[in-house]
């Protein structure tokens, strides 16, 4: 059982706010991301009769913990997987048509997008995911494929897209510094043209439009913590500019459509976020450190480790995005957790928590990683912490998850991925 920052048990996430009920049991969500994607079996499985195979499969689809588990089977002898569809979908809320929204989630197969999709699906809405799968992956939402309320479309938002919908969550854009710098021109095209296309869609359909902007619009900040009315300190020609300036121009476009065309807009500025389904090769600090510690490799701290970041768990972020979408607030709103660490402290914390989880899971003498120092990437912000006064006042939102609780859950997620051989 997880405890929130006040020591109360976390049983559900979400809330009934602004006429929109976003409450979901945390155990239901966990069953979607902590389940293995496939199940390994004995090497001579092929020699069993179809009936024996069916009985074996059925072991994995009964019982509360594995209710919605895939029946796909891993064949270690020839390193292949036989995929099947889910035998049952998790129950979704039955909403009256007037309350059921048609929601478009761009980037819905990404790390944050997939958690938002889980929530909206369980809440009973009709969800369409648009993703080009550059950093997202079909496996993050594959448990919904075939559900009548769900649609997944491979599409790049830099091309126009037409659909009828009531709400658009526009998340599509690589978010990890190594990924967004991999093809800087494509990143800025995604931010500019992708947002232009989705705003055009919102204008035509009169859908409410929420863009996920970023704390990176504040650049290397000279104000600490960062409130929404701080204009930022961004190097417009540096290696991070494709993302920072891309998101800044995306915000400018959003308010342009709002003022000129009356598009109903919401702007979330997301601070560093972590959680299960973060791609293990994402390259951001939380996934890097956990995987290095789990493998017993050295933990790579860039620079002297004195730079700071503040980390929020993904369920808090999804709460914030849903509250913002359904509120009346059209100004930008910071969504982040104020728990600030130096990267050196964070490396030590992750190392300790990985050792703790390993010991709890019966691993004797797990290796304690060393810390090694690597060069600081150019323009890396020296400090970052959100001022979340506005989110508290206008959304009644505050982070509930402690960093420690979130890291432990993420360690268990990566451990499960490693055990099933998919990482
Ligand atoms: O292995 C690593 C990775 C990262 N780091 C450091 O850890 C800090 C955090 O780095 P990350 O790559 O996780 O993320 P950053 O804070 O630089 O950027 C993030 O900001 C907010 C979001 O919008 C984006 O997800 C991302 O751009 C940086 O100071 C980085 O230099 C390490 O010390 N070691």
Automatic annotation (TrEMBL):
GO molecular function: NAD+ binding; UDP-glucuronate decarboxylase activity
Domain of life: Eukaryota
GO cellular component terms listed in the entry, alphabetical order: Golgi cisterna membrane
Pfam families per record: GDP_Man_Dehyd
Pathway: Nucleotide-sugar biosynthesis; UDP-alpha-D-xylose biosynthesis; UDP-alpha-D-xylose from UDP-alpha-D-glucuronate: step 1/1
Coiled coil (UniProt feature): none
Keyword tRNA processing: no
Keyword annotations from UniProtKB, A to Z: Cytoplasm, Decarboxylase, Golgi apparatus, Lyase, Membrane, NAD, Signal-anchor, Transmembrane, Transmembrane helix
Chief place where the protein resides: cytoplasm
Necessary cofactors: NAD(+)
Family (UniProt): Belongs to the NAD(P)-dependent epimerase/dehydratase family. UDP-glucuronic acid decarboxylase subfamily.
Official protein name in the record: UDP-glucuronate decarboxylase
Organism, scientific name: Tulasnella calospora MUT 4182
């Amino acid at each position: 059982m997880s405890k929130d920052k006040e020591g109360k048990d976390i049983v559900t996430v979400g809330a009934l706010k602004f006429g929109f009920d976003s409450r979901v049991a945390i155990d239901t969500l966990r069953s979607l991301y902590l389940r293995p994607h496939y199940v390994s079996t004995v090497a001579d499985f092929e020699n069993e009769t179809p009936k024996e195979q069916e009985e074996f499969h059925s072991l994995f689809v009964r019982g509360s913990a594995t209710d919605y588990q895939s029946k796909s089977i891993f064949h270690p002898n020839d390193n292949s997987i036989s995929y099947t569809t889910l035998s049952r979908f998790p129950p979704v809320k039955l909403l009256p048509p007037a309350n059921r929204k048609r929601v478009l989630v761009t980037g819905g197969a990404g790390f944050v997008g997939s958690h938002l999709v889980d929530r909206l699906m369980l809440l009973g809405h009709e969800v369409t995911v648009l993703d080009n799968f550059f950093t997202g992956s079909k496996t993050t939402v594959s448990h919904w494929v075939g559900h009548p309320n769900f649609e997944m479309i491979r599409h790049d938002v830099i091309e126009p897209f037409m659909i009828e919908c009531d709400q658009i969550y526009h998340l599509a854009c690589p978010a990890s510094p190594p990924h967004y710098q991999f093809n800087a021109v494509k990143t800025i095209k995604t931010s500019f043209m992708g947002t232009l296309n989705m705003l055009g869609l919102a204008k035509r359909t009169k859908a409410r439009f929420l863009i996920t902007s970023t704390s990176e619009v504040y650049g290397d900040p000279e104000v600490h913590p960062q409130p929404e009315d701080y204009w930022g300190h961004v190097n417009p020609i540096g290696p991070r500019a494709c993302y920072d300036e891309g998101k800044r121009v995306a915000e400018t476009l959003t308010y342009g459509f709002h003022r000129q065309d009356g598009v109903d807009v919401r702007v979330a500025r997301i601070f560093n976020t972590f959680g299960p389904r973060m791609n293990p090769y994402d390259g951001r600090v939380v996934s890097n450190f956990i995987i290095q510690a789990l493998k017993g490799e050295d933990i790579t701290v860039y620079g002297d480790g004195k730079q700071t970041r503040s980390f929020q768990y993904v369920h808090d972020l999804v709460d914030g995005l849903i509250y913002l979408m359904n509120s009346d607030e059209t100004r930008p709103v910071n969504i982040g957790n104020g728990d600030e660490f130096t990267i050196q402290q964070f490396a030590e914390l992750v190392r300790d928590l990985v050792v703790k989880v390993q010991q709890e899971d019966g691993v004797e003498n797990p290796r304690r990683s060393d810390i090694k120092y690597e060069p600081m990437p150019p323009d890396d912000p020296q400090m970052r912490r959100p001022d979340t006064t506005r989110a508290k006042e206008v959304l009644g939102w505050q982070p509930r998850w402690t960093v420690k609780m979130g890291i432990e859950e993420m360690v268990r997620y990566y451990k499960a991925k490693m055990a099933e051989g998919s990482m």
